[in-house]
Design goal:
The chain is mostly helical. The chain is built from 9 helices and no strands. Helices cover 68% and strands 0% of the residues. The C terminus is likely disordered. Keywords: DNA-binding.
Length: 206
């Protein structure tokens, strides 16, 4: 592994342990085994290196989360799969608390990081499709544009909210069970809701 790769791995390690704003060039050097001059030579600045590392970290974490969520077996109804998906997501946040905080630190600086903004926009498109695939129980290649724009967008909207609450008040972070209960309360015809009494006939269902 050359100095460029060492620096990237060291920066990624720092994002997990120290976050974005608190990471210094010397932290990266200590974690990577490279030297200060290498940062300027390979990346131009610490900020560019950390931005590159953040893109990589977000991508790796997203892949791991989607792999965990894809293994969820919450039943055949989408609302049940939604419940199990969000439960698994909430359980995963405790292990990456510093990285989650770093993600919000970076979002606050996107106006001066157009490259990162473009990278995250592409990652969001993939995440919407992947999350819709998990909740609907279909292969990702079968997710339609409409499903990505609706189900995927809803999921991607909820995920950062849950992440933020996990930072502010971990003990009060809503899990999938609470969120699914809210959906059932808003949509009484959802499977398993109190509004679907035994023997009731739901429009569109046998």
């Amino acid at each position: 592994m050359g100095h460029k790769e060492q620096l990237l791995e060291g920066a990624k390690q720092c994002l997990y342990t120290k976050g974005y704003a608190r990471t210094t060039s010397r932290d990266i050097v200590a974690a990577s085994g490279a030297n200060l001059a290498s940062i300027g030579y390979h990346y131009g600045s610490k900020e560019v290196l950390l931005t590159t590392a953040m893109i990589a970290v977000v991508g790796e974490w997203s892949d791991r989360v989607l792999a965990v969520l894809s293994a969820a077996d919450g039943g055949s109804a989408p609302v049940d799969r939604f419940e199990e998906t969000m439960n698994r997501l909430v359980r995963s946040l405790g292990d990456v608390r510093t990285m989650v905080a770093a993600n919000f630190e970076v979002l606050a600086q996107l106006d001066r990081m157009p490259e990162l903004r473009d990278q995250l926009a592409g990652a969001h498109r993939l995440a919407r499709r992947g999350l819709a695939s998990v909740v609907l129980g279909v292969p990702v290649e079968q997710v339609t544009d409409e499903q990505e724009d609706t189900v995927g967008s809803l999921m991607l909207t909820l995920v950062p909210g849950v992440m933020a609450q996990s930072l502010v008040s971990p003990g009060e972070t809503p899990d999938g069970t609470r969120l699914a209960a809210a959906i059932r309360a808003l949509l009484p015809q959802a499977p398993g809701s109190a509004g679907e009494a035994e023997g009731d006939t739901v429009p569109g269902r046998a």
